[in-house]
Give the backbone structure.
Amino acid sequence: MFKDRISQDIKAAMKAKDAPRLSALRMIMAELQVKEKEKGLAVDDSTAILLLQSMIRKRREAIEQFRTGGREDLAQREEHEISVIQVYLPEQLTDDEIRSHTQAAITELGARGPQDMGKLMGVLMKRVSGKADGGSVSRIVKEELQKLQA
């Protein structure tokens, strides 16, 4: 279970006096606890994975804004948090692997162009849930569907 593993890692970070890691781990734990209070029950692994992916997406957006604003120090802190969060996610698919799943789904569904994007995304996100972020999947699906139009 995610919470147990994170609790153990919090203790290890405290013993090691690793303040940046400890801060990131406490943030993850807090997000999980908020989600549990919203649902009224323990967060399962699939929900936790989606939550962690959302946290990474928010941090990537923040990094972009910090760099635009010339705050490299804050951008680096966000990057460190991403590296801590990623430890708890399953291994992510490469673009080539996502492309392979996309091409298989296009063949199965008989997709013909951009008008089939919604159907394709629905099928693919179920297949790659937790293993790829929606932004990467969406980008690759668009590329593959545009190839069909050419």
